[in-house]
Write a structure and sequence with these properties.
GO biological process, one term: fatty acid beta-oxidation
Keywords: Lyase
CATH topology of the domain at 33-103: GMP Synthetase, Chain A, domain 3
Pfam family, one: ECH_1
Protein name: Ethylmalonyl-CoA decarboxylase 1
Structural class: alpha/beta
Strand content: 15-25%
Number of strands: 4
Distance between the termini: 41 Å
Radius of gyration: 16 Å
Oligomer: single chain
Number of helices: 5
CATH architecture of the domain at 33-103: 2-Layer Sandwich
Strand order of the largest sheet: 1-2-3-4
GO molecular function, one term: lyase activity
Shape: flat
């Protein structure tokens, strides 16, 4: 099973892990995928938009201009979905990451960070190291 997980695309890994009761999320801090999703969904706003060009170049747009493209909880979930989509895009050669309305990103929405990173939890660490394989990490990235 371990060798299958190392060599399979992430979509296949996710299905295999769910079949045996695990997920791509790191549960070492006591958080589970559904719990993480529920917490992040409490912070709506903005979107992560992906455009895939025929040339093999993807354009990922952080779209939350009213908050200088700060990441909301929902945007964090959407980013994970887009990364998985990109990892399975066999024609993909590179990725441009940009912000809407001439602003890249001011970081995370501080309201979400404050609510999720309380002293009682280590929620902000729950996804650290949760993604495996090189996938899109081996491709060229440009930010504008």
């Amino acid at each position: 099973m371990a060798s299958l997980l190392k060599t399979s695309p992430n979509a296949v890994k996710k299905r295999l892990l769910h079949q045996i009761g695990l997920s791509l999320y790191n549960t070492s801090h006591g958080f589970h995928e559904e719990e993480v999703k529920k917490k992040l969904e409490q912070f709506p706003g903005g979107s992560i938009d992906l455009q895939k060009e025929n040339s093999g170049i993807g354009i990922l747009t952080l779209n939350n201009p009213s908050k200088m493209n700060a990441f909301s909880g929902v945007m964090m979930l959407q980013l994970l979905e887009k990364v998985i989509e990109l990892e399975n895009w066999t024609e993909g050669k590179g990725l441009i990451i940009r912000g809407a309305k001439n602003t890249f990103s001011s970081g995370s929405d501080l309201n979400a960070v404050k609510a999720l990173g309380t002293p009682e939890t280590s929620f902000n660490k729950c996804c650290t190291g949760s993604r495996s394989g090189i996938g899109w990490r081996s491709r060229s990235y440009y930010s504008m």
